[in-house]
Amino acid sequence: RSDLKAALKELIPQKRQDMLKIKQKCSDMKVGDITVGSLIGGMRGNCSMFWQGTSLDSQEGIRFQGKNIKECQACLPSDPTSCDPSDNFLPESMLWLLMTGNVPTKQQASNLSSELAYRGAHLPDYTIKIMRNLPQDMHPMTQLAIGLASMNKSSRFARKYEQGSLGKNDYWEYTLDDALQVIASLPKLTGLIYSNIVSNGEPLGQYNENRDWSYNICSLLGMTTGDSINRHDLTEQQAKDFVNLMRLYTGIHVDHEGGNVSAHTTHLVGSALGDPFLSYSSGIMGLAGPLHGLAAQEVVKFLIEMNSKLSPEMPKSEIEDYLWKLLNSKRVVPGYGHAVLRKADPRFTAMLDFVKARPEEFKTDRNVALMQKLSEIAPKVLIEHGKTKNPYPNVDSASGILFYHYGIKELLFLTVIFGCSRSMGPMTQLVWDRIYGLPIERPKSLDMDSLKALCHL
Ligand code: NMX
Ligand code: MLT
């Protein structure tokens, strides 16, 4: 076991005291005004959630416990078994940072990685049975949501709560236990879903308790040279790069403050004391929407389709025409725009940096080239179109096409990888929700008559 629980125990008294003071002294303090526009406009700009681990600035992008992506890359520990300084940090290091607010030591990161690897080694038999019986063509996100929901049977929180033996101050310990189990189980669930889709359920790789969480995802996708069937004959270097792409991707998609659909849904369901398995299963359902996580898949489809229509040199004028046709047919340009961000997403930039660091690998990939070209052309078109508040690339612009490059060609599956990563932020918040004893979430709604009366109509 890692020392995460002990680290949290040390932090809790002070944090609880801070929250109590805020509640007692400032509960009547105004945070902002809620407008009718926000009421009928997806609560946009309405600051009404508490979220501890991350915060999104419209200009700068995401900060994880106050640190931007580059700062995280500079300080978070990477794979302890490798001495390559170009390795990306482990998502497990990010999890420690989110949970505790502190950068883990190498040992703390490595212990947490080992704990997750140990916890993830065995899924419940009934979950494996259910997963193996799901139709091959069932949406991969539905498969993931079902797998997670089935594990509610093993929830320690749910069991203790049902027994009536759990005091409110102790909810968090069992929530933490379940939350870590959710995260730890994702590599194997992902592997089961992928092999269900591509190999009639035949395993594509081995789970290795001595390796990190992202490595195990790659191995179970059949994408490593040592522990898997290496489906695409990747060279040693390509397989190593793929693992690092997985660490990078899953390390920076963990959280995007509280209001995004997957995080918000997880929090909402958890506020009714739904256990972490049920809560995150619901979050996964939210992530599966095309305006949210599924956009990664939409982007890949879009790039491939556009490429098939463009002349080999991909002239700017043809790309512009293509975009205008799409916009004029009232469709969105996938991978562009954001509800909060007003600049290019720094997560997109981090994925682009991955490409730029490997010019030889990507030099003949026309889809990756188009993705890069589009990021220069599409913003101008969207600005001229005049509707989109943020005409710049978002996180989904680059990610899917990079996985596609290495051989993950089953487009609907891409969002499952997003779902692995996104577990870390919302699960962290759920633990802190229980530490603070936050109540059930229940906003007031207005009916049409009340709205009309308010608007003097
Ligand atoms: N292409 C064309 N039109 C757009 C786009 C786009 N990429 N983005 C926004 N618009 C339109 C939007 O549909 C709306 O039109 P209307 O008034 O006719 O309803 C108008 O511009 C204003 O929308 P915004 O306030 O700029 O965006 P909003 O906050 O409502 O939505 C997104 C944010 C991300 C849902 C939206 O930008 C979008 O649909 N983007 C494409 C899908 C996508 O890439 N989603 C991934 C987001 C990241 N993620 O992983 O979750
Ligand atoms: C996310 O990572 O959740 C997306 O960028 C969407 C959002 O923040 O609303």
Keywords summarizing the entry:
single chain, 457 residues, mainly alpha, Cytochrome p450-Terp, domain 2, two-stranded antiparallel ribbon, 22 helices, binds nitromethyldethia coenzyme A, Citrate_synthase_sf, transferase, Citrate_synth-like_sm_a-sub, 2-methylcitrate synthase activity, transit peptide
- Strand arrangement across the biggest beta sheet: 1-2
Bound molecules: nitromethyldethia coenzyme A, D-malate
CATH hierarchy class name of the domain at 295-406 = Mainly Alpha
Q: Specify the number of helices.
A: 22
CATH topology of the domain at 295-406, which one? Cytochrome p450-Terp, domain 2
Describe this structure in words.
There is one protein chain. The protein is mostly helical and 457 residues long. It has a domain of 112 residues: Cytochrome P450-Terp, domain 2 (Cytochrome p450-Terp, domain 2, Orthogonal Bundle). It contains 22 helices and two strands. Strands 1-2 form a two-stranded antiparallel ribbon. Helix 9 packs parallel to helix 10, helix 14 packs across helix 18 and helix 15 packs across helix 18. It is globular. It starts with a helix and ends with a helix. 45% of the residues are buried. The model has no long low-confidence stretch (mean pLDDT 97). Bound molecules: nitromethyldethia coenzyme A and D-malate. Nitromethyldethia coenzyme A binds next to loops. InterPro entries: Citrate_synth-like_lrg_a-sub, Citrate_synth-like_sm_a-sub, Citrate_synthase, Citrate_synthase_AS, Citrate_synthase_sf. It is found in: Mitochondrion. Its main location: mitochondrion. Pfam families: Citrate_synt (PF00285). Belongs to the citrate synthase family.
